[in-house]
UniProtKB/TrEMBL annotation:
Keywords: Signal, TPR repeat
Short name of any one Pfam family annotated for the protein: TPR_16
Lineage of producing organism: Bacteria, Pseudomonadati, Pseudomonadota, Alphaproteobacteria, Rhodobacterales
TPR repeats: 172-205
Position of the signal peptide: 1-19
Highest taxon of source: Bacteria
Protein name (Swiss-Prot/TrEMBL): Flp pilus assembly protein TadD, contains TPR repeats
């Protein structure tokens, strides 16, 4: 009997050890799976931000094809296609994202952005209208403002731009867009103020500098704005103001600005040279 008891004890111990081994193995597998998930999440973030856009597209196409049920991989593909300027492919990619049962309101915002980039303004507006008003994000209101601009609903556009400003720590882009909206309405003074403010947040934003030059030129002010600029940018802004002057009939001022732009540019400034040559040929004829 004693032998049977000892045997049973040994058997029980063996089973316990076996069970412990299985439990520990399961724990290890779960831990490894968690680590892999973290590593993959980090890789996804890297591919979305730092990787070459075309490389990111290839990565997300492959991984989303392997695991089509995962919305994060679908979302990564859609975002990467936008980064790679493959807008026509991005629209259906975003549609697949919003069709997923785990889609978020911000995914609909992503689809609206892709539609705007594709020039499908009415569908973009309908997509934005479908998003609950309780969902507030910088991107949503920036897009709402752009749609309002396209409809020439100026009061709505101003309201959306102002709301978007309050939802971002990097306001240069929305200030530049708002300034361009004012410029298109003929509100040149307000446009100039918005472009100048955008540059204070991003001194390297040449688009805002160029828009500022256009706003000043539209008011007949052909002096260069006092903003940080490289020698090349100075020449380019002179060229922009020259074209603005010529458009408004101030041809002599325009020619002078073109000559200054050519002399200022550190390299051959072909666009300014061609514009000046065309002006001089017209005068000669």
């Amino acid at each position: 009997m004693r032998h049977i008891a000892i045997g049973a004890l040994c058997l029980g111990t063996a089973l316990t050890l076996s069970a412990c081994g299985s439990s520990e193995e399961a724990e290890v597998n779960r831990a490894l799976k968690s680590v892999n998930a973290i590593d993959e999440t980090n890789l996804n973030d890297v591919m979305l931000s730092a990787a070459d856009p075309a490389e990111a597209v290839r990565y997300f196409k492959r991984t989303s094809g392997e695991e089509p049920s995962r919305i994060d991989l679908r979302r990564g593909l859609a975002k990467s296609l936008i980064r790679d300027k493959r807008v026509r492919e991005a629209v259906p990619a975003w549609k697949k994202v919003v069709a997923h049962p785990d889609a978020l309101p911000e995914d609909h915002v992503g689809l609206a952005e892709a539609l705007i980039r594709a020039g499908e303004w009415e569908r973009a507006e309908a997509t934005l209208d479908s998003i609950p008003p309780t969902h507030e994000s910088y991107k949503r209101y920036r897009l709402e403002a752009m749609v309002a601009d396209s409809n020439q609903e100026w009061d709505r556009a101003d309201s959306f731009y102002e709301t978007a400003l309050g939802l971002t720590n990097t306001p240069s882009g929305v200030l530049n867009n708002w300034g361009y909206s004012k410029l298109s309405r003929g509100a040149y003074g307000e446009a100039e103020e918005l472009f100048a403010e955008a540059i204070t947040y991003d001194p390297e934003m040449f688009t805002a500098k160029n828009n500022l030059a256009m706003a000043r030129g539209a008011r007949g002010n052909y002096d260069l704005p006092v903003v940080p600029m490289t020698q090349t940018e100075q020449a380019q802004l002179m060229h922009t103001m020259a074209l603005s002057a010529i458009k408004q009939g101030d041809v002599a001022i325009g020619k002078g600005l073109l000559r200054s732009a050519i002399d200022t540019h550190p390299q051959h400034f072909d666009a300014a040279v061609r514009a000046l040559r065309a002006l001089e040929e017209n005068v000669a004829n």
